[in-house]
Amino acid sequence: MIDLKFVRENPNFVQKMTKDKGFNVDINHVLEIDTKHRELSLSVQKLREERNRASREQNIEEGKRIKSQLEKEDNALKAVEEELSEWLFKIPNLPKKDVKIGKNESGNEVMKKHMLPVSLSFIPKDHLELGEALDIIDVKRAAKVSGTRFGYLKNEGALLEFALIQLAFELLTKEGFVPIIPPVLINKEVMRRLGYMEHGADEDVFSIPNDSKVLVGTAEHSIVSMHKDELFAKKDLPKRYVGFSTAFRREAGSYGKDTRGIFRVHQFDKVEMVSFVASEDDDKEHEYLLSLEEKLFQLLEIPYQVVKMCTGDLGFVQARKYDIEVYIPSQKKYREVTSASTITDFQARRLNIKYMDSNEKKFAHILNGTAFAIGRTIIAILENYQQEDGMVLIPKVLQKYMHNQEKIAPKKQ
Q1: Residue 251 has what DSSP assignment?
Q2: N or C terminus of the chain: which is more exposed, having fewer CB within 10 Å?
Q3: Considering the domain 4-90 in this protein, what is its CATH number?
Q4: Confidence tier at 390 by pLDDT (50, 70, 90)
C-alpha cells in the first residue's frame, strides 16, 4: 500500500495517478474514512484517560458509564480501522515520474532493439509444428490428462528446460544471487498482501479453498513474502535471490487468445530474480535486473526489443516495468518473454518488511525480474533456430548442458 500520510497531503495527485493506471478508487472517500478513524481514535483515547481517572478516584458509577461508552466506541473504531484498511488496499502503487501516461499497451515505448530478425529463405513453422515433429512438445496427450492450455515437454524439450535453468543459475549465482527453490502454495492472505488479489486479479489465481491457500503465479510471490515482518540491516542490502518454481495462472480474460501450443498455458516454469534494496538504490537496481535479462538473451543470440510500459499497462503493484519481447518468426512480431519491475516500498508496507538505516526503520524497496520464462524461451529458440530441413540448432551457450548436442532432428514416423 502507499503511505497514508502521502495520500492526505496529495489527494488530487493520488487520484490522478490511480486513474492513469486504470483503477477506479474514490480517494476523497478514503480520506473521509481516515478522518472518521482519527476522530474515533482521539475519542477512545480520551475515554480511556477518563476511565483511569475514575478508577483512581474510586468513582464506581462514573467508571461504569465510561466503560459502557468506551466499549461502543472501541467497537466502532475497530470497524472503521477494518474499513480503512480495505480501502487502502485498493489504491494501486503510483507510477514513477518517468513512466509515460497511456491508456493501454498501445502507449508503451520501445526503448531499444538487439539483433535484426533472421531473414529465412523458407516459410517458418511455428513452435507447435516444430515441437511435434521433433517429439519434444505434446499438447494432445496433455489435453487428455489435464485439459486445454497444458503441455508435456519431453526428450530434448525437457533437456532444454534444464539447460536454461542451469545457464540462469550459473550466471546469477556468480553475480551474488542466493539460489532458492520456494514453495508454490502460499496462504491466501499473503497473496493479498503482495497485491495480487485486488480489482479482480484474484480471478487469475488458482486457489485451494479448503486450506485458504493459493498457487503462486511466479516464484516472486513466495520469495518476497518469506521476509514478511522482518528487519534487514542496511549493510546486508541489497539482498538478491534467484528462484526456480512452477507457476500457475488461470489466464482469465484471455479466452481464445494464444490457444495454440504452449505460449499461454495454465502451468509453466520460471527462473525469477528478486531484490530487496534501500530506497535510494531502487532505480539503479531496476536497470541492473534489466541488464541481466538482456545478457541472458544475448547469450542465446535471439533478437529482442526492450519495451517500457505506460501507466495503463503497468499493473496494480508495479511503479515501473520493462518487458523483453523476442522476435517470433511464424508470427512476424515480437512477443513478451520477461519483465523487470520495481514495486518500490508498496509490497514492503503491506508485508511489513523494513531495514534499519542508522537509527531509523524504513520500508525496503522490492524489485523482481524474470530470468527465463521457460516455455516461451523454448518457443523463441525453436522458431529462431529452425532450419529448412526441419532440424533446430541448439544455441551454443546451451550445448554444454546437453551433452554437447548441437541440433535436434525430427523423429522418424
Answers
A1: -
A2: C
A3: 1.10.287.40
A4: very high
Helices (H), 247-359: 282-300, 346-351
User: Which residue type occupies 38?
Assistant: R
CA distance 327 to 301: 11
Residue 89's region, left for phi above 0, alpha for psi from -120 to 50, else beta, is alpha
Report pLDDT for 348: 98
Contact of 357 with 329, CB cutoff 8 Å: no
What are the beta bridge partners of residue 300? none
Cell numbers 535484426: residue:
116
Residue of 149, 193, 249, 320 marked active site: 249
Q: Which three cell numbers stand for residue 345?
A: 516500498
- Of 225, 245, 330, 339, the catalytic one is 339
Distance of CA 133 to the CA centre of its chain: 34
Q: Which pLDDT band holds residue 413 (cuts at 50, 70, 90)? A: low
Query: Is 376 an annotated catalytic residue?
Result: yes
Rounded distance, CA 80 to CA 78, Å? 5
Mean pLDDT over residues 10-34, rounded? 96
Partners of 40 in the β-ladder: none
Which pLDDT score, from 0 to 100, does residue 114 have?
Answer: 96
Distances (CA, A) of 165 to 139, 159, 173, 244: 22, 10, 12, 8
249 is catalytic: yes
Distances (CA, A) of 208 to 111, 185, 194, 338, 410: 40, 9, 18, 28, 41
Q: What is the CATH number of domain 105-408?
A: 3.30.930.10
Task: Please say if 264 is a catalytic residue.
Answer: yes
Catalytic residue (choose from 149, 240, 349, 376) = 376
The residue from 73, 264, 279, 335 that is catalytic is 264
Cβ(204)–Cβ(315) below 8 Å? no
pLDDT at 199: 87
CA-based nearest residue to 168, from 283, 270, 31: 270
- Sorted by where each begins, the domain ranges of the chain are 4-90, 105-408
- List residues bridging with 328 in a β-sheet: 333
106 catalytic per annotation = no
User: Residue 248's pLDDT is what?
Assistant: 96
Band of residue 394 on the pLDDT scale cut at 50, 70, 90: very high
Cell numbers for 325, please give them: 519481447
